[in-house]
Amino acid sequence: MSAAAEAATDATHEPGSAGPSLVVERLTTSIRIDRQWFDAVRDVSFEVYPRETLALVGESGCGKSLTALSIMGLLPEGVGRVSSGRITVDGTDMTAASEAKAQAMRGDRIGMIFQEPMTSLNPVLPVGFQIAESLVEHRGMSRRQARRRALELMELVRIPAAAQRLDAYAHQFSGGMRQRVMIAIALACAPKVLIADEPTTALDVTIQAQVLALLADLQRREGLAVLLITHNLGVVAAVADRVIVMYGGDVVESAPVKEFFRRPTHPYSEALLAAMPRVDRSAEALAPIPGQVPTLPDLPPGCRFQSRCPLRIEKCAELPPLIPLAAAPAHGVRCWVRAP
């Protein structure tokens, strides 16, 4: 683990506290394109503790969801692979586990809320059946027992008239209610780790706030370690404890959430915040980031933000390390200019 990641952990968790539920150590994930393998996630390390929310942020294509799929072991065979590193979930090394062991962990010790519920829920099966499915698989419950527990879970995530809607189908629910069904499925077996991949993207602001409040309440009650993947920095400010900013598959900044918003240091982090709409300034004040995230075959070997960075220097052709700031050891930045 990097010095910055270790410093962040030490600053947040006292010795003797509960150990991390999720540990990712130097993860590199590769994607195959035209018979060549390219590193899409490079040397990523972090830990998530019980009742903690770690947010992964960045533009689309920066490696956030690919990191989540790597943790879950859901990379498409022959197209994606974990090239190096280690992933530990609740004490189990997922990278060394057999497929049978990994399958037993998914939906049991680690759950995931996928980005779009309408493409994740089966349209021809009642939602109650889909919630109960993991209980039958992982807990050995009978269908009757699993159905009763599914009803309890629907009530837990505050779906109105749950008993009447147990046999309803996904298309009969609103977007917010479908997202609650997804949360119920992810929580069915009381996992230690919950990955929430853009859980509020398709929801309006009111429903988004309700879903986030529900997740926070369940996290406190169940002791969940939550890995939140989002591009919405407003959501991060509201619910996260720590923030990791990714660009081009690299971690470019890592900090406690208050420190991050008080002092964003990497040029990419500054650009993200400058492009975020705020109620205290006009729309004309928004500063879009020029250019776009380069494709995998076009990623530069050094700092991957260099082609869009206003502070670029010659040394950016080399990959900078993730360095803790002298004034804030829990705040790590990967930049030759800002953290020399």
Describe it.
The chain has about 350 residues and is an alpha/beta fold. It has twelve helices and twelve strands. The protein has a domain at about 5-105 and about 230-335: Rossmann fold. The chain has an eight-stranded mixed beta sheet, with helices on both faces. A hairpin with a 2-residue loop joins strand 11 (about 325) and strand 12. The two termini are about 20 Å apart. About 40% of the residues are buried. Residues about 5-10 have low confidence and may be disordered.
Strand content: 15-25%
User: Topology as H/E string?
Assistant: HEEEHEEHEHHHHHEHEHEEHHEE
CATH domain class name of the domain at 3-103 and 231-333: Alpha Beta
In this structure, how is the largest beta sheet organized?
8 strands, mixed
Helix count equals 12
Strands side by side in the biggest sheet: 6-7-8-3-9-10-12-11
CA gyration radius, whole angstroms: 20 Å
Low-confidence stretches: 7-11
Share of helix, binned: 25-40%
Q: Which CATH architecture of the domain at 3-103 and 231-333?
A: 3-Layer(aba) Sandwich
Tag the structure with descriptive keywords.
single chain; 340 residues; alpha/beta; Rossmann fold; four-stranded antiparallel sheet; 12 strands; globular
In short:
The chain has helices at residues 3-12, 64-72, 99-105, 117-120, 127-139, 143-156, 162-165, 175-187, 205-222, 233-239, 257-262, 267-274; strands at residues 22-33, 36-48, 53-57, 80-89, 92-93, 110-113, 193-197, 225-230, 242-247, 250-256, 323-325, 328-333. It has 340 residues and is α/β, with parallel strands linked by helices. The longest helix is centred in the middle third of the chain and has 18 residues, at 205-222.
